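Reopening closed ticket. The problem is back. First fold of the pair:
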Amino acid sequence: MAKSPLNQHAEAGRGGPDARSDCLVKTTRTDSGGIELDLKSRVESMYGDATRELVRNELEALGVVNAKVEIEDSGALPFVITARVETAVRRLGLDVGDGYLPEMAAGAQYGSDRDRFRRSRLYLPGNEPKFMLNAGLHGPDAVILDLEDSVASTEKDAARILVRNALRSLDFCGAERMVRINQGDRGLDDLASIVPHNVHLILIPKVEAPEQVTQVDTRVREILAATKIDHPVYLMPIVESALGAIRAYEIATAAESIVALAIGLEDYTADIGVPRTQDGRESFWARSQVVNAARAAGVQPIDTVFSDVADTEGLRAAVLEAKGLGFDGKGCIHPRQIAVIHEAFAPTPDELAKAQRIVAVFEEAEAKGLGVVSLGSKMIDPPVVKRAQRIVRLAKAMG
């Protein structure tokens, strides 16, 4: 991480009566006197002593021997406290060590795979721990710890440390762990704090050229090799401009680690100079372009978010439209959208019955060693079989 200018005072986190599951850490440089620690905690009676020990261990790991540290704790978990202390110390500009990494929680150690369902992906602001803690309980296919648009420029450093700690500490109940990095060089710098720490997939925002993807892919591979991590880290580029839409296929085929191609319509409609409408006529071409590019590349097409959290029926209609266009998933900005998205992407009874018939005749032909599969008078091509198998798997996953 880049070293901060030398400061006498620095702080990180959130305090006050409205703060929840967070803490405000204020640090002051001192030339002598050791560590002066002042803790005010809403959970003092239960966790005060443990919190003091945790903070002192973090300061020792950072190599800080002289400092005044004031903490206003609003019920923060240990991974949040250590992230806020590390951020506040680094903002002093001191020459510090690597800091304390939380132990990799047993519940956080599960894998992912290329073809898993990505119907819903829930965006979580990377500097707001209160939204992360129970995100997996809502059952999204993926959670996105966001370092980009939802994080103010002044808080990018804090979000990077907090997201790193969250990846190591939190059980997202089987949801795929995604991180949306920043654009350009800042995004490449994000990777060192993310890739070694239990991430499944990196979202690359505002991609307009395949080179943006290959830069990320190369850096990810370098980090994986250097840290001797043998599990894959997948990529999902996001198309958010007219130029990106034109180059969608080049982008979708830029790296073998790409598993999905997404579209973001807020930036796309701004780029083409029109307001975003609910019927989506202004974005039909770009969305179709992304679907076709993704299918041609053999990756999943993922639709944009639906921004009106209160409009459940509008969301349902938007998901059904996305499904009709060929999308496999949609973004979420609130947990209440997840169930609606899953229900709307579920196969209809007719779709499921047809898929089951196709899978049955395929398995029968395969058992007999036949190279040709037919249903009635129609030949069944391999892509049709693959889609039918996916529909059957999706129905089973829905229970």
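Second fold of the pair, where the issue appears:
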Amino acid sequence: MSTNIIEAKVFACTQSESIGKEIASAFGVKLGKISFHNFSDGEYQPSFEETIRGSRIFLIGSTNPNSENLMELLLMIDAAKRASARHITAVIPYFGWARQDRKDKPRVPIGAKLIAKLIETAGATRLITMDLHADQIQGFFEKPVDHLYASTIFIPYIQNLKLDNLTIASPDMGGSKRAYAYSKFLNCNVVICYKQREKANIISHMEVIGDVVDKNVVLVDDMVDTAGTLTKAADLMIERGAKSVRAICTHPLLSGDAYVRIENSNLSELIVTDSIPTKKQSKKIRVLSCAKLFAEVMKNVHNNKSINPFFIK
């Protein structure tokens, strides 16, 4: 019998209310109530509508742009701290601003480090997130970070497809480690796309390294933004003789003309999680829930149990 007498409560930011309800249900509690006082100039003030003194608080909120999503989470963390919550765990399905994890040219910020410090300064005592753009972002925090992998969701889905001549692909060199991890688990080959960019979100040239003839290819990436890389890679692989091309991407940012590109591409299917709510529906996009994964990890964290069983890398 557990000796843990600290009460656990789950709350969600506005942008993550849908997944927050699912996580709370899987966790076994009702989603806590938060109200907002809105000022006419756009400023807002969140307020917990129940006592949280001495409790373990799980605050669910992805920090995808715009910056109001991040600001809302920071305000809620600060409110929980000042309301005497014993533990404040920021549950961030999608950790935004993570592409700024280093100085890749002079006079630019390391945005991911700044966001980490903001979350800690606000009062978070722990972080649970999924598929960071760069693993080393964990090191930007001085508090414990539980970094989950959506492979625990995607791999069973791929296995159920029962594809012959399966090949895992990375849409760029930076994702090769992720692709090799999937291929090792699925016991299949890997191909890599080499791309050159003119500037952010614009690709000037792409080549495929490896054989895709008569292969059922599954592209693996951590996020899909404008879908330019994914769709170009899919089209190129079909040109090179691939039988079919699917893509699995954890975080569906889907900005700009992403939906149009996906519909017009040679992608058979784009499989994503609900870490970020999708704004539009597409017959090619399939959304898999990550709520159960987060809920189970939260339970183990709350009960001081290992979360090792939830890792498939």
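Update: turned out to be a display glitch only; the data is intact. The mean pLDDT is 93. DSSP finds eight helices and 14 strands in the chain. Please close again.
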